[in-house]
Amino acid sequence: MRSLSGVKPPRCASANATPRSHAGSQKQTPRTPVLRARSSGAIGTGELGGVDELLHRAGGKPLPPPWNPHGELPLSRSHLLSPRMKPVSRLSMAARDKESLLAEIIQLKKTMIQQGELLKTKNARNSAIEHRNRMLEMDVFYLETALNADGPRTGSPHRLRAKLQSLQTAVEQLQDTCDAQREELIQLRRDLRVTRMREVEVERDVFSDEVKRLQKVVKRLQTMHKKIRCENRDLGRFKTKCQKLEMVNQRLESCMTARSIKPQAQPKSGIHRQNMQNIVSSHRNSVQFRTKQWRFTKVLHRRLKDLKTT
Predict the structure, then answer these.
(1) 217 and 301 co-located in one domain
(2) Which residue from 6, 67, 94, 146 lies 20 to 30 Å from 129 (Cα-Cα)?
(3) Which domain holds residue 234?
(4) How many structural domains comprise the chain?
């Protein structure tokens, strides 16, 4: 196995290593180089840095520094490499260090953005909680002033809890009252709807009865109209007959006046007696017809008046 005493460390093995000073009397603080671990477990290139990897592998405790024959000289990457591995060039190591630093910077930026978003959400939540607290304080002040509370706003926790419990019970009672009134209002609306439907049904029944009554009245009026038409037809016949009798009566009267014959002085012959009987009977018939006509018109007017009143 090759000894590490014969290997001369370079001036700057990595970007984080401290270069060796020419003055031997001055002491320099050794700095641990940034190392990377391979997937196989050997020290080399990997995802974690050198110190982080060592702390991770040691369970959170830093490992003791390796043996250094040069005393306090800083260790280079070539000291820790396996003897079978070829030393990596300085440019490739620097490029790898830059890549690791760039990846770490990107990861840190992502973390910073996430933390900023989390901080914004926390701030928004805190502002909302503060606003809610202010609103609750205003509500408590309003309740205290409304209930004429003589005690101070602040007090012992037990007193505040008791007051809060009493307010909660009062709110629950008011909520129950509101629910009961709402149910009562709904029931009243239902009853009102049913009552309105019942009123409509009653009005329908009344209107149907009235329609039936009016139909009966119409039928009765139709029958009366038929009777009146028949009576009018009879009256027309009687009227024509009466006119004929009046004409006969006038002709007889004119004949009697023209001859100036008195009924008592006329000879009592059969023909004259028959004429006189005819005249008397026609006069009697005309009088009876007029009386019947007057009675009929009177009855007709009475019936029409009764119909108008009903």
Answers:
(1) yes
(2) 146
(3) 175-263+276-309
(4) 3
